[in-house]
From TrEMBL, chains A, B, C, D, E, F, G:
It is found in: Cytoplasm. The gene is groES. Belongs to the GroES chaperonin family. Its main location: cytoplasm. PANTHER family: 10 KDA HEAT SHOCK PROTEIN (PTHR10772), CO-CHAPERONIN GROES (PTHR10772:SF58). Heptamer of 7 subunits arranged in a ring. Interacts with the chaperonin GroEL. This is Co-chaperonin GroES.
Length: 96, 96, 96, 96, 96, 96, 96
């Protein structure tokens, strides 16, 4: 991927929810769907830089499927795709 | 369980309150019931990572029944079930 | 008691104010009474855990009668009784 | 006094302002008087506890007449008298 | 002066602005004048106390004429005079 | 460039989005376009100064194309051009 | 200059924007002009004082032309002239 996040940030691709139609078959418009909370990490930073220059390694890595808070991070568009740049501390959990 | 919380977080399953009918026998709709404040911990993180890479062990563990504040944590849905991801510092007490 | 508070928290039982009738004999409804600010401590945590794993001992202990701020702490219900879970730093004073 | 404040707190008795009548002799109702900003300290805590267990001594002591900010502290009632529990850092000055 | 400020605070006497009449001779009522931002320091604290008991000396001293922000500090009345108690960090500059 | 940012700040030139006309050929007025989130760094500070006088080196350098949050930084005008002065910690990622 | 700012503050004289008339020759009233963001430093403090008494040297000095945020600092009037007292950390960049 062509984006390198800084510090303790990761770049994530939100995993689309599959149920786009209701049980009665009605297709839900985009705005009626809940924001996804699952994503796949596509790029990771080098970790928080300490004052002495050392880095704190991240606990997540590229390819991890993770759960994150609904309102965390910054949405960006890159080469026509939407991503979420988020600090690792706002990643709640890894799906194993 | 398939979710591994990060850092000092735990994943909790809220314990449903039993009284779903009032004394006069009326069934309370979901919205009229108080949010539960008791839960069972189903997964725990490795503990807060210090700048030197060490971890601070958690005081709670999987299987603990705990009490937490009404507005703490982030609700998530995983494989059709609802969970609460919460920082250990927002867990108020353990039921022994 | 069956509740073990975490960290620097204590569990308290509010001490009911006695004057439930006014001088003219009128019984005051619950909402017209001031929230009590005195309580008896029924359980204490092990104290704040430091990054090195040590604990900072609490200054209060089970059985202490204490004064606390009106808006501090989290009300919980446990086995049909109401308690207040409160951080020791929000306990103002001990009644001797 | 029967109250022992915790940490860096002190218990204070507000000094009543004397001018309860205006120059024209009208008695001012309680609500029209400014909140007093002077008090006499009636009890002091042992000082802020540091993580290593040491205490930071207070700069004020019982009997000191002090000036404090109008909105600082928590009003409590104890044995029928009103007091103010206030952190020493909200005490502005000592009257010598 | 009979007031000893605590910690890093100073007591200041606001310097009255002299132009109490406009150019056309109209006397401005008190509320139409800007709050003064200049004052003379009449008492100083012993400086911020560090956790080890040491003090950080103040950079200002009694008699200094200083400039301060319009909304900083707490106004007090002492022996019929109005003063401002202000933390040294809210004193912007000294007039030399 | 004639501007030297202080501390951990960088000066950035926003990269204009190219699609100024909609698919139907309508030219979008300035206000209807999203604020760009990509920029090119044109000047960098010496890094955050620590209390001991040392500097923490920046992770970005002049010429880097970066992504930043929509509401971060301060817009300035210099010699007729618009720039954004932004703290490095608000730079989300570098485009490689 | 007769003002000595305290700590990490500097005193600045805003540089007036020159275009006081529009292209059509209309003179703009003061309120319709943007607040300037450029200034010249006329006095500097001795730098932030650390708890051990040491100072952190400032990165700017008297005579520097600097850029600052629109809403930073405190406006003061001194001997009939208007100045801005601003913390060095709110100075964005130096114009070289």
């Amino acid at each position: 991927m062509g984006i390198k996040p800084l510090g303790d940030r990761v770049v994530m691709k939100a995993l689309e929810e599959k149920e786009e139609t209701t049980e009665s078959g009605i297709v839900l418009p985009e705005s009626a769907k809940e924001k996804p909370q699952e994503g796949e990490i596509v790029a990771v930073g080098e970790g928080k830089k300490l004052d002495n220059g050392d880095r704190v390694d991240l606990d997540v890595t590229t390819g991890d499927r993770v759960i994150y808070g609904k309102y965390a991070g910054t949405e960006i568009e890159f080469e026509g795709e939407e991503y979420l740049v988020i600090s690792e501390k706002d990643v709640l959990a890894v799906i194993e």
